[in-house]
Amino acid sequence: MVLLLIGMSACSTTANNARTSLDWEGSYMGIIPAADGPGINVQITLRADQSFTIVYNHIDRQGIATESGIFSWNENGSVITLKHTTFPPFYMVGENHLLQLDMKGKRITGKLADQYVLRKRVNS
């Protein structure tokens, strides 16, 4: 009886998080604020094998920066960390969106906070 309760408890904690409950695999796009210009087009592609590709394109500059690598999930399955990247590494995973977090993995606050959202591209 005790083992059954422990097993049920473990299942309930892993079943209710972004990693296991959401369809997170795919491409996310958006324009985030830039300190020195009109913004940055960002596209992140997340794959089932926990690999990623991120593309940064400053709106007012020539050139595109791209990096690929792997990502990991935090303990409660809600935040991913892009490993070994020069770009901001922390993103909270939500229903059809990624919310960029600050460089310490905390929510961005202030008047521009709602602009750090990347929306999932839906294939038609």
Helical region count?
A: 2
The percentage of residues in β strands lies in 35-45%
Write down the Rg: 17 Å
- Percent of residues in helical segments? 10-25%
Number of domains: 1
Average pLDDT:
88
Number of strands: 8
CATH class (first level) name:
Mainly Beta
What structural category arises from helix and sheet content? mainly beta
What distance lies between the first and last C-alpha atoms, to the nearest angstrom? Answer: 49 Å
N-to-C order of helices and strands: HHEEEEEEEE
CATH architecture: Beta Barrel
Tell me the major beta sheet.
8 strands, antiparallel, barrel
CATH topology: Lipocalin
Instruction: Give the uncertain stretches in residue-range form.
Output: 1-13
- Cα shape: globular
| Strand line-up of the largest beta sheet | 1-2-3-4-5-6-7-8
